[in-house]
């Protein structure tokens, strides 16, 4: 009878578990890519949409910017940045909620299994 060189570890079971986790992670990432969140600023005059991984997908501007002055356009530019940051923070929260349980500590700093999220 040969002895298991890995002690009491069942390497086949570990490999199956790793494959299941990999598939669950891939599915969660697909859901994140399909998800969208919005961020707003200037009282709703600026709305940006990002996908679940934080990529900008849309910008909507209120009618008040038609025929805007240079000062209004500076406010608009700042408002777009604020709205993007709002949406990106929401996307980051969504990613943490979706992928956090699957990471199971693999994303710890210095871990060889870092996900880079």
TrEMBL record:
> Does Metal-binding show up as a keyword for this record?
no
Instruction: Write out the annotated subcellular location.
Output: Cytoplasm, Nucleoid
Q: Which residues form a coiled coil?
A: 11-38
Q: Which Gene3D superfamilies match?
A: Nucleoid-associated protein YbaB-like domain (3.30.1310.10)
Main localization category = cytoplasm
Annotated Gene Ontology cellular components are: bacterial nucleoid; cytosol
For this protein, what is any one GO molecular function term? DNA binding
Keyword list, A-Z: Coiled coil, Cytoplasm, DNA-binding
Q: Does the keyword Cytoplasm apply?
A: yes
Q: Self-association or partners: how does it assemble?
A: Homodimer.
Recorded protein name is Nucleoid-associated protein Back2_19510
Q: Which organism is it from?
A: Nocardioides baekrokdamisoli
